[in-house]
Amino acid sequence: MPSENTLRLSEAEVAALLEELRSDVPRSTISEWQSSAPPSDERTSDQVNPSHYKKGGIECIDAIRSMLTEEEWRGFLKGTAMAYIWRLGHKDAPEQDARKTLWYVSWLANQDPRG
């Protein structure tokens, strides 16, 4: 059951986010969505970036980034964000997939979503 702190995106916002993903230069809508979201400690961030993605002091996302060129990294981020939008409402709770999408879009905006 969604909590009061659940981030909800309208169809128009999802459409705008999809358009954003097609662009190489993130616009301010990403930061607007992030600023309207509850602080990360109020969200269930462990569903977005759970501890099992970290082994030996290294997070999987950092290992992936270190192996890729900047162009490959951006492609990885775009593809992953698009995959979460694609499955929105078909696997996990739509709000969870929206948070995961924003996590990867944050990276596209050169903002580490981990804080």
Please describe what this structure looks like.
There is one protein chain. With 115 residues, the chain is mostly helical. The chain has one domain. Helix content is 57%, strand content 3%. The chain is built from six helices and two strands; from the N terminus they run αααββααα. It has a two-stranded antiparallel ribbon with strand order 1-2. A hairpin with a 2-residue loop joins strand 1 and strand 2 (58-59). Helix 1 packs antiparallel against helix 5. The longest helix is centred in the last third of the chain and has 17 residues, at 70-86. The radius of gyration is 14 Å and the shape is globular. The model is unreliable at 1-6 and 40-45 (pLDDT under 50).
Provide the fold topology.
Blueprint lengths: L10 H12 L5 H9 L8 H4 L5 E2 L2 E2 H8 L2 H17 L7 H15 L7
Antiparallel strand pairs: 1-2
Helix pairs in contact: 1-5, 5-6
- Along the chain, the helix and strand elements come as HHHEEHHH
Please describe the biggest sheet, giving its number of strands, its sense, and whether it closes into a barrel.
Answer: 2 strands, antiparallel
Uncertain regions spanning at least 5 consecutive residues: 1-6, 40-45
Q: What share of the residues does DSSP label as strand, in percent? A: under 5%
- By DSSP (H or I, 4+ residues per run), the number of helices equals 6
Strand tally is 2
Q: Number of domains in the coordinates?
A: 1
The helix fraction, in percent, is 55-70%
Class of secondary structure makeup: mainly alpha
Shape: globular
- Please give the alpha-carbon distance between the first and last residues: 26 Å
Look at the structure and give the mean pLDDT.
74
Oligomer: single chain
Give me the side-by-side strand order of the main sheet: 1-2
Radius of gyration: 14 Å
